[in-house]
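notes to self, project folder thing:

trying the whole complex as one job this time. last attempt i did each chain seperately and stitching them together was a nightmare. two parts in total, labels are on each line so i dont mix them up again. if this works i'll redo the older ones the same way
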Amino acid sequence: MSIANYLYLSAILFTIGAIGVVVRRNAIVVFMCIELMLNAANLAFVTFARINGNLEGQVVAFFTMVVAACEVVVGLAIIVTIYRSRRSASVDDASLLKR
Amino acid sequence: MINLALDVGTTAGPESVLFYLLAPLSVLASLGMLLVKKAVHSALLLAWVMVSLAIFYIAQDALFLGIVQIVVYTGAVMMLFLFILMLVGVDTSDSLEENIKGLRPIAIIAAIGFGGLLISLIGRATFNRPTIGFILANAGGNANGIAEQLFTKYVFAFEVVSALLITAALGAMVLAHSQKSRSQFAQRDLSIARFRKSDLKDAAGLPGPGVYALHNAVDVPALLPNGQPAPSSISAVLQARGDIIESSKYQLTQEEEEK
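result (full assembly):
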C-alpha cells in the first residue's frame, strides 16, 4: 500500500466535512463537521511529516489540536448563548443581520 | 487504490491491512454523520472517526499524537459536545429538508469538484524521494523528540498558544455567564402569587402524582375524585418527553370499589 493513501483518505474526510458545514443546519453538527475537517488536515500533516522524516509536522498537528480545542470552547459557548436568547440551535434562524 | 505518480514508498503488510479495514469504516462513519438526523448520533460517529484517526497516527509511528488525539479529542472535545447537546436539548433534531432551494445538489456537485481536485492534485504530485519515516526522528523517543522541537524552535508559538488557551477559557466564561434580571422566586413569593390568582383552585398547591393504592410513581397522573386523570399533577418535563403512563388502567373498577 502506498503511503499516499493516507493523503487520499485525508482529502476525502476533508471534503465530507466541507459538505456537512454547507448542508447541515444544526449549529452543533456544523461544528462537528469543522472538527472533522481539522482532523483530516492533521492526518495530512502527520503523513507529510512521515514522508519527510522529521517531527515538525507532528508539532504543527499538535498546535492544530490545541487551537481546535480553543475554538470548540468558544464556539460552543456562542451556541449556548444563541440558544438561550433564540431557543433554537439552527443556523438558519440566526439571520438577524439579513433583515 | 491506484498508485498514481506520487511515489513515496509503501508500507508494511500489517499496516496496509489496518488501513484497508479502518479507512472505509471511517469514511462511512463520516458520511453517516451527514445523513443521520439526531445530533447525538452524529457525535458518536465523529468519535468513531477520531478514534480511527488516532489508530492511524499510532500506526504511522506518531505515538504521542495518537494518545493526545484520544485524550483531547475523543475525551475532552467530544465530552464537551455531548454536554452542550444535553444543555441545548437532545430532542432538537435537525429537519433535513432544505431551506435554500437547490442548496444540496449545488453543495454535492461543488464537493465532488473540490474532492476531485484535491485527489488529482495528490495523485499528480511528486516528491522525488522515498519516504524517510520516523525511525531516525524517533530514535530518542517520540515524545522526547516533539518536546525538543516544542521547547526550542517553537517555544514562542507554544507561549502564544498558552495565551490563546487562557483567552478562550475567559471568553467562554464571559459568553456562558448570564446575569439574572430578577432574584429567584422563593417559597414565600410563590405562595403569595398562588393566593393572588383570580381563583383559589390551586391555592393549596398542585396535586401530587401517582395513584397511591396501586401504582405510586411520578410518571402516573393522579386520579381526581370523578375518575379523571389530573394532568397538572405531572411534571411538565415528563409530559414533554411523553414518558407518562396512562392512569386509567390503575383505576378501581366498580366491583373492587364495592368490596
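what i see at first glance: Residues 37 and 94 of chain B are 6 Å apart (CA to CA).
need to look closer tmrw
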